[in-house]
Structure formats: C-alpha cells, structure tokens
Design goal:
Largest sheet: 7 strands, parallel
Strand order of the largest sheet: 3-2-1-6-4-7-5
Shape: globular
CATH class of the largest domain: Alpha Beta
Order of helices and strands: HHEHEHEEEEHEHHEHHHHHEHEHHEHEEH
Strand content: 5-15%
Number of helices: 17
Radius of gyration: 25 Å
Length: about 400
C-alpha cells in the first residue's frame, strides 16, 4: 500500500452515478470572526457539493485576502456571499429543512437524528454560537457528542462532521432500495398535467383550432406549431410567476397570448383575450392521456386509495377529469385554486393529506416536475416517484424514479 493523490484515488472509484442522485445541501454560518474558518467552510461547501455558502453578517470585519487563501481553489468553485438578512426563509430556498448544529436545550444527538434529504445546515460564531432569533427559526437542532476533556468543536470541524454524517445517511437510503420497497403505502397522490394528462399533445391540437378560427396565417404567423413553440416558453415563465403569487389568474390568461402575438408584431389585447378564452375552452376537452394511464389506474384502484393534487384552475382540471373518464379513479381531488396555495408549497400537500384522511408516512406522490411535485412532497414528508419520461439527469432527491407509468406497477 502506498500514498496516491486524492484525485487519482477518486478517479478509480465509480461514485458519480450514485452521488449525483444526492440532493445538494446549503450551508449558513452566523457571524463568524476568523478568516481561517470562513475559508475552511468555503472549502467544505465545495467538497460536499453544496449549492451555496452564506455568511450571515457583514463582510467589512474580515480580511478577505486571508479568507480567499484559506479557501484555496474552492473560492472559485462555489457560490459564497455575505448577507445581513435575519429572516432565514428569505435566504433558504423553499422546501429545504433548516438544521442548526448547536448545543441547545432542545438539541438531538446528530447520530440519533434522521436527517432530512433537502437540507440547509447553519453553524454559529466561534464565541456566541447561533443567535437566538435565528435558532428559533430552525426546524431541527442537533449536537455532536464530544467525549474528550475539551467539550467544544471548531466551527468548520463541526460543520464537516454533520455534513458527512448527512451524506452517509443519504447514501444508505440510496443503497437500500429493497428495504424501501418493503414500506407499505396506502394512499397514492398523482399530479395531473404531464403525468396522466398529456398536456402538450392536447395543447398542440387546441392551437390548431384557434389558428384556423382566427385566421392567424393572414396575420403573419406561419403555422399553429410555430405559434405554439413561441407560446410555450413564455407560458412556462408566467406559470412560475403565478405559482410564486407574483401575478394573478387574469394576468396569466391575458399575457400568455398577448406576448406571443407581440412576437409577431401583433398588438391586439382583444384578440389575445379571445384566443385565451378559446384555448381555455378547448385544451381540457381534447382528451390526450400519457401512455399507460388507464392501465395503471385500473391496476392500482383495487389496491390503494388514489388521490389527485394539481396546480391549475378548478373548472379546467375538472373538465379534463370528466372528459377523460378519470374522475371515478380518485377519491379526492385537490386543486391549487381551491386551497389558495400552489405546489411546491408544502401546505397544499398537508391540505390534501387531511382531505384524504391520510398520513405522510403512508403516502406516495407521483409527479413529473422535480421542483414542483417532488420537492414539495418531500418538504411535507411524503415519499415520491419522479416520472421522468426523457430520462434527463435532474438534481434533487426522490424515493423512486420511472420513465414510463407502467414501471410503477413493478414498484407497487
């Protein structure tokens, strides 16, 4: 046995496929004083594959040259920044569980705590720990047992112990699929659009109808397909704003056709409104289902309680279910418009669980959008199946992943 460089060792170990399935943590540090500790945490964030490293407090008190030297090459590999914000939920992305590494009266031993998959760890200053106002905002507090005579750990060492324990737990879950499959589920929650309902195929036909009805070729739009290609990315961005409550339903309905028309030099709000009205009418009435939908539901219906959680407008989603004959399969249907919050907000999942008389532990969410369906369900404590027909590598943790709906029969 002889020493080799770490890069040479890790090139021999085929860890990439497994490790890329892990979620990426975030790290926060409250009012650190020592440049060496700041640099070490930047290095650690790079080592663990964190999304970012946030230092709470001002950067004016630090010798930044020394921080950069301590971080070495990691200073260019990871996003790190300072923030004086004290509302942690304005910094930490939605869906992440905030875990404090701190000695506190309600702390749990790190090695006894099942750590969350999507996590943001926070450590405190060398002298005073995490400020009380920040500690109160954390979802979980863990301590690291120290048996030696000096009963405190260096802050960067403590963060490293916690992060690699978290990584160990996540890897163990990934490496034990048989154990996970033995879990008993009673309630299955489905997303609708692009999971069961072929949203894009129905939209293409709806665009052909409105293209012909309003003689859009005469207005300079070459084809219904091209019009839809222009519309699609603009509509996706508007839906992101709608999910974030930054625009209203009325704004969405008007703007999603006004902008594509303007792309062709057509500035006609009345036409945009008429196109929107006809699209809302036609798109849920053109029945297009994802292959395997009915076969899967027929298989699952006798064995599980089936439910639906969908973003969208009440009347539109109801029309889809009725026209496609899907309504009888689902015991409950939760639409974001009725709840007042949208996926990925965990509240819509809590609402759906209560409506179904289910617990998170006995439930499973099936959906096609990682950031919306899967992250939201995980934040509510629900296991997930990520429906990924394209097989595109996607960051984030999921309990299972399938490329076709009928693969779910093999899991359940």
């Amino acid at each position: 046995m002889s020493y080799i460089k770490s890069n040479d060792l890790f090139e021999r170990i085929p860890t990439e496929t497994l490790y890329q399935r892990l979620p990426r943590p975030m790290i926060l540090a409250d009012q650190l004083m020592t440049p060496d500790n700041l640099g070490a945490l930047i290095r650690l964030a790079d080592n663990i594959g964190a999304t970012e490293m946030c230092f709470l407090g001002s950067d004016a008190d630090h010798r930044m040259g020394k921080v950069r030297r301590a971080a070495a090459s990691s200073r260019d590999n990871i996003r790190w920044y300072f923030s004086e914000e004290t509302d942690l939920r304005k910094i930490v992305p939605a869906g992440k569980t905030l875990v404090a590494i701190e000695t506190a009266d309600n702390a749990t031993c790190l090695y006894d705590a099942p750590l969350p998959e999507d996590v943001a760890f926070i450590v405190g200053s060398e002298r005073h720990g995490i400020r009380e106002e920040l500690l109160q905002q954390c979802d979980l507090v863990v301590y690291i047992p120290v048996p030696g005579p000096t009963r405190s750990l260096n802050v960067s060492h403590a963060a490293a112990v916690a992060l690699f324990e978290w990584q160990r737990q996540m890897l163990k879950q990934l490496q034990e699929p048989t154990r996970r499959r033995q879990k008993t589920y009673r309630h299955l929650f489905f997303d609708l659009d692009r999971t069961l309902w072929d949203f894009d195929a129905a939209a293409e036909v709806a665009f052909e109808k409105i293209y012909e009805k309003y003689h859009l070729k005469a207005l300079g739009i070459p084809s219904a397909h091209e019009f839809h290609e222009v519309y699609h990315p603009l509509n996706e961005k508007l839906w992101e704003l709608y999910r974030a409550d930054q625009i209203t339903k009325a704004d969405l309905n008007r703007t999603r056709f006004l902008k594509p028309l303007e792309h062709y030099g057509i500035h006609d709000t009345e036409l945009a409104d008429r196109l929107s009205e006809d699209y809302v009418y036609w798109s849920p009435r053109i029945v297009r289902l994802v292959p395997g939908t009915l076969e899967l539901l027929e298989y699952l219906k006798p064995k599980y309680h089936l439910h639906l959680i969908t973003n969208g407008f009440q009347e539109v989603q109801q029309t889809k279910l009725g026209g496609a004959g899907l309504e009888p399969y689902f015991e409950t249907r939760t639409v974001s418009e009725e709840v007042g919050v949208k996926k990925p907000n965990p509240e819509i999942f809590h609402y759906a669980l209560k409506k179904a008389g289910a617990t998170a532990e006995e439930s499973l969410m099936i959906g096609d959008e990682m950031a919306v369906d899967i992250d939201g369900a995980r934040a509510a404590g629900i296991d997930t199946i990520f429906f990924n027909p394209s097989g595109t590598p996607t960051e984030g943790a999921r309990t299972y992943e399938v490329r076709t709906l009928l693969e779910i029969k093999e899991l359940l």
